[in-house]
Design a protein that fits this description.
The protein has 632 residues and is an alpha+beta fold. The protein is built from 15 helices and 20 strands. Helix 2 packs across helix 4, helix 13 crosses helix 15 and helix 14 runs parallel beside helix 15. The two termini are 47 Å apart.
Amino acid sequence: MMGLLAAGSFSLPRLNRDRPGGPSPLWLLVLLGSTLAAADFDIVVYGGTPGGVAAAIAGARQGRSVALIEYHKHIGGMTTSGLGKSDIETREAIGGLFREFTSKVRAYYAERYGPTHENVKLSRDGYYFEPSVAQRVLDRMVSDESKIRLFTNHRLEEVIRQGNRVTGIRVRNRGTSEMLEFRGRVFIDGSYEGDLLAYAGARYRLGRESRAEFNELHAGVVYQDYETRTFLSGSTGEGDKRITAYTYRLCLTTDAANSRVLTGPPPEYDRTRYLGYVDDWKAGRMGPPKVHKEGVGYFAPTFNTAVRAISIAEIPNGKVDVNMNPRPLGFVFAEENYGYPEGTWEERERIAMRIRNLTLGLLYFLQNDEAIPAEHRAIARRYHLAKDEFADNDNFPFQLYVREARRLAGLYTLTENDTILAPDSGRTRVHSDSIAAGEFPVDSFPVRKREAGHDVALEGYIFMLDQLTRPYQIPYRIMVPEVVDGLLVPVAASTTHVAFSTVRLEPTWMALGQAAGVAAHLAIAAGTEPRGVDIDRLQRAILERNQVITFFRDIDSKDPHYAALQYFGTKGFFSDYQARSKDPVDPETARRWWRIATKSEPPSGPVEQWFSKPVRTRGELCGALYRRIGER
């Protein structure tokens, strides 16, 4: 589907290039006759999602010049566009720039309201936040880096290649229609849609693999009881091109003075679309969960009401994060996005607008329709669009929740089997090139609307497989295309559909983006392609920046050997999630670790005498070996 535009230049023919958009720096645009002059950067990041932002910051902090280019007028993707609670189950598994972001969010609330204020408590250490606060924090993190030049409101038009290597891109200002060209030494695709990788001609996946392709239990066509996690009739495991439903994530307020009340329905409103939610309520499908789990949108005031069509979580300042609940059979959003990933810019905008109107339509329906019992309507009428959020976008989020689109076909494909305990092991599969940890359970929205004969759950809905998913290692190879050089893909990374549903969380994407930015720097420094980056150097560099590449349950960043233990966790030292850092090291383990670390036979004599300083514990041995091989 790639079309040749000029010598070595590729683009996606189905993406329309005639849409106007916002201001552009005149210093960059120099037309000499018909020639478009280019600006040179070390690293060019396309996509201002949290993953793209993390990549840009990481590269800039290594001293590299970075261009950060974003389609919308704002950076931050879902984090600044309504997703007000961080989807993370195991906080200790994600560090680095994401942890820096949450600490800055908490500091904002503490400084503004005082450390004991209710807003600080509601921020939950900075993991829950208002979109406007997330925007403020991410904007500041980017503006603090003098090496980053930010270009918002620009869309990708072309990718320029020399042979297999990406050497430049052309983007159009959506406000002025001006074309800009960026040349770089490494390009990073930070978009949710995988646009840059597709324009560059990299192979990608779209849709769902079959169960047989990677031997994944939850792959392909699946009907599953979300309470018991048992498979239902019709679960064939066949692969297809169906796409997980997209929605918007709303930020609503209970403050009357800050409320923008819907006074009428949105365009294309049809109340009959939403009557399925009433059927769900009458059938008893809107009750409380059998097992309550913190942080998954369970909000007691809506139990046994039609308002459970939405999932509510409290955030600071009298606001709530609102997700669209995928459990009701009346869920209206499935199938509305099928044309989005490969659609033209105009088609994408139409799909986004339709889903926007469906979202507002649901809110209006719950608040006003006579089919909704009066007491349920009263609950729904407590929540309204916030006047102080998304002020330049009609108080509605700018970013469609693109849960999954294209996925790179990379040097390695992460599968469901990488996220569960490995055979004969107490932890997940070990990857020697791990550059981040994943931890969120496999969790995927429906792909089809209600079908006759299926009265428990919608097809494709896989709810929070927390009994199976375990913290896992994410290999660098999932960011590296099979053939295309000069390109890293930390967001639309190389995974199966099932595995993508655990990777596709903003904290994980920020970890991958941070690794991509550091890898880009190392590739430039070594004069090599990203696929040739020295993995040991990369791992050490990101460990120095408080990233997590191996998760352990019994240690944290306070352990003096934290980096060493994580590093050797990628080399096969540990068979479970216990580092036992302070335990005495036994001779057999010491010799095995020495052989793995140094690829040589261990010295004779007791372990205590192998190094200049006595080594007695497992942590001390890892630290000593880490220093030894780092000096080579």
